[in-house]
């Protein structure tokens, strides 16, 4: 920024939404940085709403809703620091010390009293004494004139003399001048005219600035106001001699909705395609882009000129009419002025409406749709990435833009300069791991139009284009005309082994790292803006690579591979810490930080890596084509460093870069796993030495000195081969197990920081104490959630709009934490629910029950997420990952915790929360609990598919069963115990079927007994049995009230003859839990009674609705009982130990 542009304006009230938005829209379009408004009529409750609506910072001095009020507005792009501020308690003054480009400006916004009150200006002068006041800019509506002859026309020859004299004294003390009068000593111009008495005009609004700043003021002028009796006054203040550069041209995407422009470009494309003079497809395409750019610039300027001419003509007409009215006051001129003002207001309203339509959104008071505009309103405060100061190698800080550009260019030239590497070193004796010939061939060959079309459609719209200025929007609009030209150009470059000069260029934009010194260039992340045609080619090659790369990358790498998740690494680390403490396992986690990893990767190493993984010559040629001869420049303050060559690194911004990097990172993984001197930690028989997420690398070491030293040696060898340098200052050595309490002596000689936490990895902060996870992660997110809701709380949104904010902006703060960390305490959930409820109802009492908010809108709700259900649904996604065919080191901890349940078998069982409580790991327990909560009744439509194990219908002493010796030999379903005809297997068949020759006890199968009312035997195959969806999810409130349960304890030899049941006996089935050693059988009848022959046992009868069957295995006596209801009959199968088998009928 080389110039600070200011506006001062008495708005005469901004409480009307339409008026305020019209003014804000106007100010955003003007080339202005700071706006000082008077008579805003703001109150404290307006602050958040107006600030969000404006999109930048606002400092307020509130009056009442009907008078006074001053505010200072800063444009969102303005990068400054407010050192000190003061707000008058009656809405008359705002004073700010502003630090801008190594200058401190004291800005004073004034709304002078209507009465002749000198005390106000005396008070302002005293308060200013606490500010720096080296460079003062005071502006506003002072409500007096300095010179009655020059600054006033009409009315009585008087003003607020005492207030004026006090202000003149202040001007003398602070050496201030009226800059407009200084430039126009004899001119008559007025900033206010009376709407009541039409012949009174005054200059009440002016800028008073420090005298030594006069030479820095490039412009001071005024313009008609909008719906106010005051004019706007302007001041341009030159901050430095450096003007902002022109930047580089970018297509205005709004032109793509202009049919005239579309026709213009279409004709140019068709004409160029018919020109036979071009030597090759590449030169044709580059010439066409050049011509499109020229035509676009010309058309844009013409269109902008037309818009500006209309606006300027209206403003000039209003100014002329105001002057005529001042000279010759007639009703005809007054009416013409009124019409011109209304026409200008209508023009601004049309522009404002056009902006809203293009954004596909309404103002937030009306807009409730989940549009990009609606959800990105709070993002307008994005930081300016311009570098204003840079620290040179000698420690001197410079703000000179030429020096800054030279430093930037020198830094990035050195960063991308190739260093001598020995790529072959790391590959010596490395086990071969590569693609099959068939997979390699899928990555080969020239590009096709279909491939490139898919790649183009996958590119996001409205992203910054590369050096040619043509966005993805443009390519999509004209792809039917230019598609073949682009594909032919890229294939021509491939066949000739290099891109065109324009295609190989990139523009680097620097993103400051958070909480880092922005004067150091190393604290910026370079993102390369590449041309869209380049991205189409690179994305197409990346799509080919994406299909085969999972076959090459081990499960230890979770970055950029479809189906893998960043949270898998977090879970492994947190579970490893707990496991090492629980089992006293010594070890270390060495968290490695590679310095500028993506930017320093050696190209020779990339080529060697591609060849190692069996990629063919064609793919290597594509790599060379896309990466060789690349150049880049860095833009700062609108100026370019000039293009410099790129000789290493994978550009952040290139779609191919992530996949190339993880292929190279896989070499480090293979080299580590091939080492004989490094030992990892073994969990469940699986040794893990390394986990990775892109360049985020963590070694898992067994705690032995040799392993730690070997890890450091591996990193040094890998640097020699790949060029990746380890930043030892940012590496962490995290002790595990007993090393947490007492570290071994040998680590004192290691030049790496030993840390017990807090340590941040992949967005999660942790220590060696799992209890700290909530405090370190959830509480900061809660603060951010409060800030998010507070940001939107004063907007006049309907509950529907507020529910959108909750779902998309507020709860998104918690998604990652809910996914990877144990559940927070219930108090946290309640606090979040309370925050959401208060936000939705604007702090008022709930209009409907909170549970009703969960319903769809057409059902009277707002589709608000239930926090607990939302958390459980996220947790249950781990079930899908666990049951998938993909490998993952984190699964070892799940396997360890679920071994007693048959590992992933439990996912398919009808288990209960009480059974899950036996799982030791709290996170695994919560995942299973969430799964059971959502699928407590497992849907089955075939009785034979009922799982025997971990089934809450099949219990002993109210505990579910799992016998691993049977399950791992194939006994899983009820149907496993029967033949194809539905008959129970005899013991020999059972042993033969499941290879149970070493079965620890003798089993034999009894008989199939059928009792029915007429005594006839019923032979029905089990496979034909169909059940209702017994395990369908039912809300507790939907269960019939007739459900009851009771327990009867019987003594020996006591006979139970009749058990009265309800009249609907054919809908009421009995579940028997056997607890004794002698077996009893229940017989059924139609009459509403249940007969039972008892031998000797204690038992529980639980009457249940919608239970069509029960399967019971009694381990102590090896008795299996199967109850199945078929129409009006009960089918009973018994088989058990021969020693206690008795005739039961």
Automatic annotation (TrEMBL):
Q: Which molecular function terms from Gene Ontology are attached? A: catalytic activity
Under the heading InterPro entries, the entry gives: DNA/RNA_pol_sf, Endo/exonu/phosph_ase_sf, Endo/exonuclease/phosphatase, RT_dom
What are the residue boundaries of the Reverse transcriptase domain, all occurrences included? 492-766
Query: Could you tell me the superkingdom of the organism this chain comes from?
Result: Eukaryota
List where this protein forms a coiled coil: none
State the protein's name.
Answer: LINE-1 retrotransposable element ORF2 protein
Instruction: List the source organism.
Output: Holothuria leucospilota (Black long sea cucumber)
